């Protein structure tokens, strides 16, 4: 700028020119262009043989079109393991999850477990899978309902634990045969002489499977099924539903109260017992009750609840071992220029479009249930 000289007006400041920098393409841009997951792009860039020729060509074409250059720093960070596993459960109020988590801890020694409550996250408008993305967990155990697409986007090894509405490609299923469990509970009550047996159910794949077993057993015995639905699978929701049932029967506005109730989980069975006692109905003399999951409360002397056991601790242990195998399978060679143990995530696409000779893992286990008989059923 020239000197204006004494007494001259200073020149007004010139407007600063905006510096526009073109945004460098990222691995996510490549994934979107190729129509695949970020993890599959990573496998292609590492030269993995586990990707089909069609997917490999799509990724390489996208790389060329976008002029994408992988970041060596990002590759090094992505290759490191966090030695952590994310666990999604339906809700902490369901006591079934306590022994499941104990089984997971027993079989996933050396890994830290982070637990997310799917019901609470949904209430808050949050996605637990996205939270685990920021934590960079090595794998997932899905013991609660989550969006399937979110898990596939994350692209890491996962195991589905329990009867769920989702069946993820490449994710082993570890579950108890809950339809058989529903039949066990119903058969037990029928063999004790009960003919009017109500099933207290709720929403969810697990409840539906147990209810289906009840319906099958009732049908084979020539008995008419009566299903009562609670708003949730909780003690309070079951109490409200059962109280309504008993009140309607007392007022003559509905069929008589049943002689037995099969509740699709133990907290719901506790709610039924509470509602019965509040109306002077003694258990088991006036009402036989069977629950499901054989949670710790079932064995309490004051409750003594007959319950179907799917052995949740064993389910947790089997699920943990299945995830360990997937994590070991996902660990690939260390990329050039990276240090430490590399991880090579298993993209969702590999479950349905794997390279020849590499099939998706089969379901890991379907464990048979057993009935634990206590006083509540009057046996």
UniProtKB/TrEMBL annotation:
State the UniProt keywords alphabetically: DNA-binding, Transcription, Transcription regulation
Can you give the residue ranges of the HTH lacI-type domain? 25-79
Q: Which Gene3D superfamilies match?
A: 3.40.50.2300, lambda repressor-like DNA-binding domains
Q: Does the keyword Transcription regulation apply?
A: yes
Q: Where is this region: Disordered?
A: 1-20, 334-362
A single MF term (Gene Ontology): DNA-binding transcription factor activity
Q: Which InterPro entries match?
A: HTH_LacI, LacI/GalR-like_sensor, Lambda_DNA-bd_dom_sf, Peripla_BP_I
Chain intervals with Basic and acidic residues compositional bias: 11-20
- List all Low complexity biased stretches: 353-362
What name appears for this protein in its UniProt entry? LacI family transcriptional regulator
Organism of origin is Leucobacter massiliensis
Q: What is the lineage of its organism?
A: Bacteria, Bacillati, Actinomycetota, Actinomycetes, Micrococcales
């Amino acid at each position: 700028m020239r000197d204006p000289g004494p007494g001259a007006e200073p020149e007004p400041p010139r407007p600063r020119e905006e510096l526009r920098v073109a945004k460098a393409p990222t691995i996510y841009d490549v994934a979107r262009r190729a129509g695949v997951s970020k993890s599959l792009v990573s496998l292609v860039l590492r030269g993995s043989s586990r990707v089909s020729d069609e997917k490999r060509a799509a990724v390489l074409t996208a790389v060329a079109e976008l002029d994408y250059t992988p970041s060596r720093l990002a590759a090094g960070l992505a290759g490191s393991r966090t030695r952590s596993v994310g666990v999604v459960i339906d809700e902490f109020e369901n006591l079934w999850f306590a022994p499941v988590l104990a089984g997971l801890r027993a079989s996933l020694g050396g890994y830290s477990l982070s637990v997310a409550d799917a019901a609470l996250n949904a209430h808050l408008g949050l996605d637990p899978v996205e939270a685990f993305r920021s934590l960079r967990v090595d794998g997932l155990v899905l013991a609660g309902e989550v969006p399937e697409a979110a898990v596939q986007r994350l692209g890491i090894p996962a195991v589905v634990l329990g009867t769920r509405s989702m069946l993820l490609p490449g994710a082993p299923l570890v579950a108890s045969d809950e339809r058989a469990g529903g039949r066990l509970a119903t058969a037990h009550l029928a063999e004790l002489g009960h003919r009017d047996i109500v099933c207290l159910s709720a929403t969810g794949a697990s409840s539906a499977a147990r209810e289906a077993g009840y319906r099958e057993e009732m049908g084979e015995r020539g008995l008419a099924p009566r299903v009562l639905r609670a708003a949730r699978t909780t003690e309070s929701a079951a109490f409200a539903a059962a109280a309504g049932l008993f009140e309607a029967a007392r007022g003559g506005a509905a069929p008589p109260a049943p002689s037995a109730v099969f509740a699709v989980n133990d907290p719901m069975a506790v709610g039924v017992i509470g509602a019965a006692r509040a109306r002077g109905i003694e258990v088991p003399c006036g009402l036989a009750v069977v629950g499901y999951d054989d949670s710790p409360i079932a064995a309490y002397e004051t409750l003594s609840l007959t319950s179907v056991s799917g052995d949740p601790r064993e389910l947790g242990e089997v699920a943990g071992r299945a995830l360990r195998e997937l994590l070991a399978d996902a660990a690939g060679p260390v990329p050039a220029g990276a240090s430490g143990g590399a991880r090579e995530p298993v993209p969702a696409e590999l479950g349905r479009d794997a390279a020849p000779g590499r099939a998706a893992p089969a379901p890991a286990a379907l464990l048979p249930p057993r009935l634990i008989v206590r006083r509540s059923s009057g046996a």
